[in-house]
Write a structure and sequence with these properties.
The chain is of the alpha+beta class and 217 residues long. It has a domain at 2-119. Helix content is 56%, strand content 10%. It has helices spanning 36-43, 61-69, 94-102, 121-215, and strands spanning 18-24, 27-33, 55-57, 75-78. The protein is rod-shaped, with a radius of gyration of 41 Å.
Length: 217
């Protein structure tokens, strides 16, 4: 699909934006993006909603105007409603949510007699430039967040390694102490056996002497 391709434009040349619309969960979503692929990525879609008939390009004047004013930003409205798209939208009523769940494909609006939105060339270029600027800002923010997460992971890995080393050292010390105790126990057992043997000999002699003493009376 040509429109879904991720082309690389020469630096300084902004890509022409189109308005795409879909429904996910409790919301209808719309965005001004240079391609279907960019729209899917912004929506966080795990599959190609356009191929599934769940997303489409729209020329609804109100939707186009709203998205072009905030290019690259996902706009929302309660699913099944005809309200304005905005960055924040109220959760739809249960009835509207139930209707949205029942429909097999994206809600098709009634034929619109209004003329498609005519965006001036200047406004289109400005929206595209704003989109590119927003993308660069997000990429920079993503790099900063990734760097911060890397630092957190590194600190966590160091903490885990330190705790693991302390655990292994304590475990070795515990093993050494058990070995020493076992050695002491073995030595005690040897001494106890020797004492039992000594006592057995002495007891036999003393018993014999006691017997002789009693028999002499």
């Amino acid at each position: 699909m040509a429109d879904g391709e991720d082309r690389r434009y020469p630096e300084g040349m902004a890509r022409k934006l189109k308005t795409y619309q879909t429904s996910l969960g409790f919301y209808d979503l719309a965005i001004a993006a240079p391609s279907m692929k960019a729209a899917l990525e912004a929506w966080g879609a795990g599959s190609n909603l356009f191929h599934q008939g769940l997303a489409t390009e729209t020329d609804d004047p109100e939707v186009v105007t709203a998205t072009m004013a905030k290019p690259g930003v996902v706009l929302r409205r309660a699913v099944g409603s005809s309200g304005r798209f905005s960055e924040r939208a109220n959760i739809p009523s249960q009835a509207a949510a139930d209707r949205a769940q029942e429909r097999p494909q994206m809600r098709q609006s009634k034929p619109n007699r209004r003329q498609p939105s005519q965006v001036s060339s200047k406004a289109a270029r400005q929206a595209a430039a704003n989109y590119e600027r927003e993308q660069r800002r997000r990429e920079a923010q993503s790099r900063r967040e990734e760097a911060a997460q890397t630092k957190v992971r590194e600190r966590q890995e160091r903490a885990i390694a330190k705790a693991q080393a302390a655990f292994e050292k304590a475990e070795r010390e515990h093993g050494a102490r058990l070995d020493a105790i076992e050695a002491e126990r073995a030595a005690v057992n040897v001494r106890a056996a020797a004492e039992d043997e000594r006592w057995a000999g002495q007891k036999a002699k003393l018993t014999a002497a006691l017997r002789r003493a009693r028999n002499s009376e």
